Amino acid sequence: MKILIVEDEVGISNFLKQGLEEEGYEISLASNGFEGLELATNNQFDLILLDWMLPKLPGIEVCKGIREKNKTIPILFLTAKDTVQETIEGLKGGANDYIKKPFSFEELLERIKIHFRISDGDEILTLSDIKVDLTKHQIFKDEKEVFLTQREFELLVYLIQNKGKVCTRTQIIEDVWDIHFEYDTGVIDVFMNAIRKKLNLSKEDDCIKTIRGVGYIAN
């Protein structure tokens, strides 16, 4: 698996490079936003670790630029920013996840593994007029392809695989995010809003319902 690290602090980038290479990943480095965007859009990577505060071009703009070219590659923000508004800004900008500095390498490694995880189950999943091809990592609605981010894809697959069951926000955080500690479950709503928008679903749609104060259910 090839990972691009866009980080201007040499100590952090070298530490991550060494640790991830020891885990078997192939690592490329960029030290500013322009360089990171150029590498990300002109090369094939499986995941991007992106610092928010970068010289020449802010991480959020790098993220948006990458998303214009690649809708599915997982992008994880490495950031000291941790307010809800900043988190939402990053997610709306196309990020799949974020990890707050300072962080443990073990936590980062687990987050990366989550995004590389292959979904179990049938190769083709269906929900109303939505079809999900797990093998090809494609989603179709009314036979028209819809492009979701990796995290959005994983969340939609989880709801479909648990069709007919109420999935609480806590369950989603634990089963999809693989996070078993206190975490702001409000980010799930951000992802669900994005999924509904891309699939042209209303909050009242029977396909995926919001259970107020609890979570979601796919029917």
UniProtKB/TrEMBL annotation:
<dbReference type="GO" id="GO:0032993">
    <property type="term" value="C:protein-DNA complex"/>
</dbReference>
<dbReference type="InterPro" id="IPR001867">
    <property type="entry name" value="OmpR/PhoB-type_DNA-bd"/>
</dbReference>
<dbReference type="GO" id="GO:0000156">
    <property type="term" value="F:phosphorelay response regulator activity"/>
</dbReference>
<keyword id="KW-0804">Transcription</keyword>
<feature type="domain" description="Response regulatory">
    <location>
        <begin position="2"/>
        <end position="116"/>
    </location>
</feature>
<dbReference type="Pfam" id="PF00486">
    <property type="entry name" value="Trans_reg_C"/>
</dbReference>
<dbReference type="InterPro" id="IPR001789">
    <property type="entry name" value="Sig_transdc_resp-reg_receiver"/>
</dbReference>
<dbReference type="InterPro" id="IPR039420">
    <property type="entry name" value="WalR-like"/>
</dbReference>
<keyword id="KW-0238">DNA-binding</keyword>
<dbReference type="GO" id="GO:0006355">
    <property type="term" value="P:regulation of DNA-templated transcription"/>
</dbReference>
<dbReference type="GO" id="GO:0000976">
    <property type="term" value="F:transcription cis-regulatory region binding"/>
</dbReference>
<dbReference type="InterPro" id="IPR011006">
    <property type="entry name" value="CheY-like_superfamily"/>
</dbReference>
<dbReference type="InterPro" id="IPR036388">
    <property type="entry name" value="WH-like_DNA-bd_sf"/>
</dbReference>
<protein>
    <submittedName>
        <fullName>Transcriptional regulator</fullName>
    </submittedName>
</protein>
<feature type="domain" description="OmpR/PhoB-type">
    <location>
        <begin position="122"/>
        <end position="219"/>
    </location>
</feature>
<dbReference type="Pfam" id="PF00072">
    <property type="entry name" value="Response_reg"/>
</dbReference>
<keyword id="KW-0597">Phosphoprotein</keyword>
<dbReference type="GO" id="GO:0005829">
    <property type="term" value="C:cytosol"/>
</dbReference>
<keyword id="KW-0902">Two-component regulatory system</keyword>
<feature type="modified residue" description="4-aspartylphosphate">
    <location>
        <position position="51"/>
    </location>
</feature>
<feature type="DNA-binding region" description="OmpR/PhoB-type">
    <location>
        <begin position="122"/>
        <end position="219"/>
    </location>
</feature>
<keyword id="KW-0805">Transcription regulation</keyword>
